[in-house]
Amino acid sequence: MKRIVLIITGLIVLLVISACGNMSPFDNGGQMSGDHMNKSEDGNDSSSNSMGMMGHDHDMPLQSSTGENKLNIPPMLKSDKETEDEVYYTIDAQQGQTEIFDGVQTETLGYNSSFLGPVVKLKKGQTAHIKLKNSLDEETTFHWHGLIIDGEADGGPHTVIEPGEEREITFNVQQDRATLWFHPHPEGKTAKQVFSGLAGLLYIEDDLEDTYEYGENDFPLIIQDRTFNDQKQLDYEAVKDPDGTMGETLLINGTLNPRLTVNKEKVRLRLLNGSNMRNYTIKLSNNQNFEQIASDGGLLNEPVELNEIQLTPSERAEIVVDFSQFKTGEEVKLMMDDGTVLLPFKLNEQGKDSESEMEQRKNPVTISDEAMQKQVSKEINLSGMGHHVSINGKKFDKDRIDLTQKQGETDVWEIYNEPDMMGGMIHPFHIHGTQFKVISINGEEPPKNLQGYKDTISLDPGDKARIAVKFEETGTYMYHCHILEHEDNGMMGQIKVE
């Protein structure tokens, strides 16, 4: 009898050890296996899970674009008034109906339109005056993602605009050319309002020569996924997931089943991951290389040749595809690494007599020796899942200041994505009101396409990144995970800059 008990006990121990061994997707002493960012010719690699999860049960597939509808190109917002040094705009958050599906009107939200918004263009050195109107039936804010701006105008959860009200913000445009964006940021309501359509683009321009033409060979691509109910309506409450809401329906610039017609020339695509939580690893269908020329905060020091690129929620990248290299009649598609077609291209035979060019930046992005040698002064620990997410073990409290920093001084932050028993998930970490520089990821120099200005950094479970952060303006700013449901669930803190 004793022998039987010993045998049974041994079997149980073996089963427990086996189960524990299968539970963790880690190796190398607890670190998540796999590379970090993007795969390029010079060995700058990145692998990602297109669903954005590593161990958590998010595996909703995305439907491929059939290419039956012409891609909508957002209009440029017309200014109310513009002089050499000043520009005035009005932006109105409003409700409306949009024909996303043929013959069906879907209830949506938008800026100055029924769905999404226009492109707002600013120029370095200008003073911008923007009137913000709330025509919704609920409170909202206007957050300028990636913009260097004072805390009062940044549009965080402290600066709520009630229904029917408006306010004006004024700021100096002080950063180099970049593709930024704007979206709502009310406490606990950001995910739903973005899901319903509130998102627009903000272009900063400067004096660098740029011969690309908007809508001709320079196109924005706001990539999003949504779920619609049987009536083709957006019912966020019915589908929301506290660990990040995904959808099976692909929209680019609000277009269902989009296609883009291009000439056989170099074309710039300004990519924005505008989804609540889905990650995208993007490539061309024939595996041809392309150049990344800009990241979140503007131009890289020099173009980086890649054959795929990962974008987590809120990240941007400007890439140049040389369509003159494709054969006549060749099918070309922008797609995900899992084979999902994002955007089929239709190639016109015509090219251009002269090649479009973007002048390289004149002030290279560098990290000073002093900043490289600084000790870490701020440690950020991202942990938890669903309703139990936190930063440094705390949930967001708008009456609590978590960190402080002096205006104009560079501090080194260390961001750690703590794995959990299920392996963990990718967290895109965003800081308001600044563009930071990546010092290292897991102790190693970042890949070249992460050596420009960033406002969001993607961290796999177990990843630890050091970033050099400087605030040019003063005020209270948010920092948070940009999975919007995590943000709404309290994975957010605030820093006071004086």
What are the main properties of this structure?
single chain; 498 residues; mainly beta; Immunoglobulin-like; seven-stranded mixed beta sheet; six-stranded mixed beta sheet; 5 helices; 34 strands; disordered N terminus
Structure description:
- With 498 residues, this protein is mostly beta strands.
- Helices cover 8% and strands 38% of the residues.
- The chain has five helices and 34 strands.
- The model is unreliable at 1-55 (pLDDT under 50).
Strand pairing plus helix content: what structural class?
A: mainly beta
- Distance between the ends: 74 Å
Oligomer state equals: single chain
Mean pLDDT: 90
Number of strands: 34
DSSP strand content: 35-45%
- CATH C-level class of the domain at 218-347 is Mainly Beta
Low-confidence stretches: 1-55
Largest beta-sheet details: 7 strands, mixed
- CA-atom Rg in angstroms: 23 Å
Helix content: under 10%
Query: Which CATH-level-2 architecture of the domain at 218-347?
Result: Sandwich
CATH topology of the domain at 218-347: Immunoglobulin-like
Trace the largest sheet across and list its strands. Answer: 15-14-13-17-22-19-20
